[in-house]
Amino acid sequence: MPSMPLSCPLCGEMHILPFHRDSRRDYWRCQTCQLVFVERGQHLSSADEKAVYDNHENSPEDLGYRRFLSRLFTPLNERLAPGARGLDFGCGPGPTLSVMFEEAGHAMALYDVYYAPDPQVLEDSYDFITASEVIEHLAEPGRVIPRLASRLVPGGWLGLMTKRVQSREAFAGWHYILDPTHVSFFSEATFEWLASHLDMQVEFPAADVVLLHKPCSRA
């Protein structure tokens, strides 16, 4: 049990209830935004977290990995104007999604807290931002996701890929919670709350894929 009252790392509310427990961690669900999360005291250290990521072997030459990423790439690319400018947030040690967008004619910047830690790219503005298999790793999604949304120009897109919570019963046997670096788990209801909170429109174009659209400026 946590040593102090919990607040949700996404919305900040304190109406938190137990959701699941396994042999390693406790999982809590916010009753406001429906985020399921692991409290900070049960997170890995930064060094241990990076050690897990260092074992990832993704690369642009891996056709299977490209097919996996195409679930996000294809619907987002269909919505972009030619020559759009994008940021791949959490690109990892083998950036691939950014390469796919560059091949489609879009300029890309990269950011990763471990592998491309250039804070300047987070001060620029973009037509689209991607975060594939990233937000489930965020200890502070309520700080990071709004910051990304703020870097979008009017009419911009935030494209996310993460597996979604379906039910308490499915969660108990879910392989996704076995990864010790996964600490934030989103449901469709969570993304709907997030879209409302950010004043954005939300779409679910494919399994595990979420597109958040920033409205164009109104005269």
UniProtKB/TrEMBL annotation:
Q: Carries keyword Transcription?
A: no
Q: Name one GO biological process term.
A: methylation
Keyword field contains Metal-binding: no
Keywords assigned: Methyltransferase, Transferase
* Single GO MF annotation: methyltransferase activity
What the entry lists under Pfam families is as follows: Methyltransf_23
Name of protein: Methyltransferase domain-containing protein
